[in-house]
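Fold this: 60S ribosomal protein L35, putative
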Amino acid sequence: MSNLKAFELRSLKKKELLEKLEELKKELSGLRISKAIGNSAKNSKIRSVRKNVARVLTVYNQKKKTELKNKYKGKRFKPYNLRKKLTKNKRLQLTDKQKKAMTLREKKKSLNFPKRKYLVVHRE
């Protein structure tokens, strides 16, 4: 089997991808057995089959992740693995709403004593 192309695999459904994966794994186990026996004719094929298995798994996992992203798109909470990675500092930062929150006392003070605005007049 020649190298599979990822763009071709993306057109397949999840079930078909899993079938392809099983087929590739069987082929790989057969190749490993033939290598153990000492048949060196197919040894070079092991690498390409392993890479094909990796391609199929990659496409399958990408499809799964996009489905989950669409499922949780408008929801209030997202699973941790679907949230943005960012840095720890960014993740722990307060939201804008939390930053603007005031205690009752602060609100009263800011309403009763607003920030004074001064006008500077320049005379010549």
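Residues 101 and 107 are 9 Å apart (CA to CA). Residues 45-71 form the longest helix (27 residues).
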